[in-house]
Amino acid sequence: MSSTAHGHAASVGNGHDAPAGHHHNPGFIEKYLWSTDHKMIGFQYLFTGMAMALIGGFTVYAFRMQIAFPGMSIPGYGRVTAGDYNALVTTHGTVMIFWVAMPVLIAALGNYLIPLMIGCDDMVFPRLNRLSYQIFLVSALVLISSFFVEGGAFGGAWTSYPPLSSKSQYNLTGVGSTLWVVAVALEFVAFLLGGINFVTTVMNSRAPGMKLWDVPIVVWMIVLASILFMASVGPLVAGAVMLIFDQNFHTGFFDPVKGGDPVLWQHLFWFFGHPEVYVVLLPAMGIVAEVITVFSRKRLFAQRTVIMTAIAVGIISFFVWAHHQFVAGIDPRMANVFSVTTLIISIPVAEMVFVYIGTLYGGSIRLTTPMLWALAFIAEFLLGGVTGIFLGASGADIYFHDTYFVLAHFHYTFFPIAFIAVFAAITHWFPKMFGRTLNETFGKVHFWGTVIPFNCIFIPLFVLGVRGDHRRIYDYRHFPDSMQAGMQDLRVFATLSLVVLLAFQVVFLVNFFYSMFKGPKAPANPWHANTLEWAAPSPPPHGNFPEGLPTVYRGPYEYSHPDRKEDYWPQHIAPEGA
Amino acid sequence: MIRPVATTREMTGMPTGRLAVWWVIASEIVIFGGVLGSYIMHRIGHPEWEYQAAHTNTMAGAFNTVVLLTSSLAAVLAHNAAEQKNGPKAARFLMLTCLGGFIFLVVKSVEWTNEIHHGYTLASSTFWSFYYMAAGLHGLHVIAGMVIMLFVAADARKNKELQRVENIGIYWHFVDLVWIFLFPLLYIAK
Amino acid sequence: MSDTAHASAGSHGDHSKHYIKIWAILLALLVVSVVGPIIGEKLEHGGTINHHMRLILTLITAFGIAIVKAFMVVKHFMHINLEKKYVTYMVTAMVGFMLVFFGGTAPDVLEHEGTHWENVSAKEVVKRGQAAGAAGAEHHGGAAHPAEGSHVPAAPVEQEVKH
Predict the structure, then answer these.
(1) What is the pLDDT of residues B9-19, one digit of tens each?
(2) C100 chain-A contacts, CB cut-off 8 A
(3) Residue A255: closest C-alpha in chain C
């Protein structure tokens, strides 16, 4: 059997399932804006997410500069007022989680990878898929528009606790706060539609022969994440409706004076908010699993255990939410329960990390750019997870709550998820997506230029947090406790590291867009990987598998099988003599 | 649009459309679960709400329950007809279901107008906020169900896409189900 | 008979009689759930049963029957028993998550005091509402809304810590 990509493609066809009649030439609008093709919708999500990441990056630049050099006119922004500061912080948090991490990790990669990896030609509901992106786009536009209304963008923090979020005399924003809630609610609708599509597609439309255990981990993870999202977001949708009413119609759902309860919002929010962490973590874990097995040339260690562990994480994640509220006045007896569950959930997550390390052990590791990103994910996420243990214990949390320690912990989990894993995914699947190859040197420069400044930002913030530095402060000069020896220097160092990190993203953007059009042509299977997307040409045409949809004969991780000459064994290749 | 092969596969042995409807219902359960859960917590914690709940119109609520139960019957009879490949009959039953939804909304609006006239508005107290919010959210689902049902009925009349009759029926029963819980919570618990 | 009532079950018999029967039972249950609490109220007024008994009667007739009705709709109209097993699991799991949510949230929201804390505002609202309700004076609902934010303490001090 030939090991070239074309050899695989020849064996793809099995006749009975071939897509027919996918040959018409759509116009520009139909192709790029009104497409029902899952790959194009994936790209739409990806590029919208990247554009939103620029907004998220710019806002963090502006408010970090204010912290480091308070009162200074910031190059590219001007003076940051206290109201601006709140709006910038809120927008940064909201955008990075809801309009960058979610769309890129779940929607973009899910849309792009799921049909390819399970060997079918599209999603089961292509038009629902298109609608999902359109609603998402509208939600992004609504959020952006809130910058231009009177009173500016919402300044009530991304968690939007009432009464800060529900009364404009507290959050100092006018209609912007309602626009924020509407945007978030629309975004949820978009992801609910998308999630239902993902789940039904994987349940019903897998390639013939592909049993549940043959589904690649990343698809498993995206599906589990979609289910988690679906099961957790409901109360917050209800809460969003209540918040809009509180903001605009003088109801008192969250107003104690009228018989409501602000703590209810915190429960509604975190009942979603904590599973949400795992909604984005699981796909990131899936990406890392794929990349690590491909570049270790070894079977994924304990493949079924990873899946069972992920399911366990999903279930336990519904029992931990109140650890965000230890200082909110919740009942201490419940705080004990939630401390225990929080410590329990670190066990399955740690287990996944061990599984990845177990996969590396004894493999023939290739340090390509995607592999570097995947390894960095394990290392950095580990730090995020370990610092979480301190915060999960309710006693320690009372000291750490609302300090920069929390913030640094959170970013040590989310940055690896939303950027490091995403860069691993983009560099890994770029040849498939665009049919061209990224420049490895530029990729490595970008890698080190991102990971080193990342640590330089957040390690100082851990130190600041332990010294009691409170977050959400506009100008530390008013707080002598926070201006002790060296504290401002650490803030300046972190901010300058941020600027370096942002500057290095230019390397990525140049590499990305240059390679997209001018990079060397990529073969169908440049990494010699097993999963089905590599059986399609690069880039896959409409309908994905021009030579007929594949049939699956084995699991996705048959690397270095002793019976074979090549060190990989694609899922769709029929066994010899069959 | 050409139908992708993906839409024709049935690995689970369940048609994709029906599977998706169940997932929709799963995600709706948590939305209404959040609303009802929050309401119940407040209702038990605030015994003074009984003075306000006393002003809801139990008979209107009961009548609406009858209407919705009957429309659910029509929906399941439409499914019965669709099973026998009788598209036009299924379409007629679906229109009857829609009529039920319409009567429901009319009764609701009369009831609300009456209550607002008596001074019980959205912001009167948290009980009324919950009352309007929960019933309003449910009402939106009724409207959405009716709109989709009209499209399904139009297809069914031509004997097309008959499996959708069952799918929209399942959704409609769920809307009915939510009301079955809303009714005692908002009207009977006094 | 209901096990053949499904499209995918192959048989295309007419089940309309069965559906009408279920509908009739649902209506009968509805009557019970409306009449039950009314009778309870009458009995309490007449002194036959105490308030506690009346609450139990309401719970059983209104909410117990709602659960029975829901179960009948799910089984006979939505045919969940004829779907693949995981549909039942999935729906049950969602209901279960909501119970978890309720269980985790209720100790803070439903209760107005607990270990080392007391929700002063909520107690105030309950007291005010009950006084207004008992006086029969409430016209616009018990806790008539106070002017926005005027004498309201700057909000997040809702739960005070008792030492």
Answers:
(1) 888 888 999 99
(2) 318-319
(3) C155
